[in-house]
Specification:
The chain has two domains: 182 residues, no CATH class; 142 residues, no CATH class. The radius of gyration is 20 Å and the shape is globular. The strands form two sheets. Strands 2, 3, 4, 5, 6, 7, 8, 11, 12, 13, 14, 15 and 16 form a 13-stranded mixed sheet that branches. A three-stranded mixed sheet has the order 1-9-10, with no helix packed on it. The chain is an alpha+beta fold.
Length: 351
């Protein structure tokens, strides 16, 4: 019991070191308090939520918020703080009614879990701000400096798309009736945990813990094959890397046991789960069917909490995860990318 006590003490005081979210803008205040939509995430619900959001906008705002399906802006997204105005509608330019409508819309085209993950990352970004003036400036950190845009016409049957992007969130969602894609998607966070009221928020908790569960489920031979570097690796297919197909490396997933396979698919599902359940489940089946042709690579130590990175490469999936030195603690500044090389920007359904 004496040996365990220091660990229990450390765990009990850890939340005290988490930063506390303090809204500096209307956008961060509304996103911190408004609840996600109560929705079935059906095509009908998505169209209705989009139309309700657009009805709150001025004619000039609608011009910013709705662009043609083939507009170049679809492929111009960022995971760094924008330095100036970019395409789409800036959340910091919306009033309370418009912000609430945008939340209802985003939480309908994404799963509730996916919306909350993106929202939490946006709120984490507020903690990188130094002042209210910096928060309100066009471009930079904070929930106010994220942009949303609809491509095409929201439809229950025809293809249309949604983009939400800014620092550490870039969701490219394509909707084609009951079908959906969220590729490419960049998800990161800094800090990795914070307090929202009396609740501790860890936006990317399981992307870390499940990865260590998986690498430690491997036997010695498998782990040796999976490990392609002793220290954290770099991301190869991030922002600005459309069409890049990294060379497969590491452990062939064909060698996995049934239990190992389950852990790895559960890990991959964390990115798919940003979509409503039906679309996420359909996508997981596709990845599962190709898993024997997929490889998993690990860089770094195996001890949970270590500075490590991993890469899952297959015919229809790219998932990369690593920490960043900027900020001083790579465990507090996380990056990840998810891509479906066979259906980037919903290319299977685009006309």
């Amino acid at each position: 019991m004496k040996a365990i006590a220091p660990l229990l003490l450390a765990l009990s005081i850890t939340p005290l070191f988490a930063k506390t979210h303090k809204p500096l803008t209307l956008a961060s205040e509304v996103f911190a308090t408004a609840k996600p939509a109560d929705t079935d995430h059906s095509p009908k619900a998505m169209v209705a939520a989009a139309e309700s959001f657009l009805k709150t906008l001025t004619p000039e705002q609608r011009k910013q918020a709705v662009l043609p399906m083939n507009d170049a802006e679809r492929r111009i997204w960022t995971n760094v703080p924008p330095k100036a105005n970019v395409g789409g509608l800036r959340l910091g330019d919306l009033n309370k009614e418009q912000l609430e409508a945008s939340i209802a819309f985003l939480s309908t085209v994404m799963s509730t879990e996916g919306y909350l993950k993106s929202r939490n990352i946006m709120l984490a970004d507020d903690l990188l701000l130094r002042s209210k003036e910096q928060a309100e400036r066009r471009g930079g950190f904070g929930a106010a400096n994220f942009w949303v845009v609809i491509f095409g016409t929201p439809s229950e049957t025809e293809t249309w798309a949604v983009q939400l992007d800014g620092h550490h969130v870039a969701n490219n969602i394509t909707i084609a009736g009951e079908k959906m894609a969220i590729s490419p998607a960049f998800i990161g966070t800094q800090p990795h945990r914070f307090m929202l009221g009396d609740k501790e928020i860890i936006p990317m908790q399981f992307e870390t813990s499940l990865a260590f569960d998986f690498i430690n489920s491997l036997d010695e031979k498998q782990r040796k094959e999976a490990t392609t570097g002793k220290t954290r690796g770099r991301m190869a297919a991030g922002a600005g890397k459309d069409g890049v197909k990294p060379k497969q490396k590491g452990l062939s997933c064909k060698s996995l046991t049934a239990d190992q396979r389950k852990i790895l698919l559960k890990l991959a599902y964390l990115w798919l789960d940003d979509m409503p359940k039906r679309a996420a489940d359909d996508r997981l089946k596709e990845i599962d069917a190709q898993l024997d042709q997929t490889t998993f690579a690990w860089h770094g130590p195996y001890k949970p909490g270590s500075d490590a990175s991993y890469h899952l490469y297959g015919p229809g999936v790219i998932i990369e995860y690593n920490g960043q030195d900027l900020g001083g603690d790579p465990l507090d500044h996380l990056h990840s990318i998810y891509r479906d090389p066979t259906n980037e920007y919903g290319s299977k359904w685009a006309k």
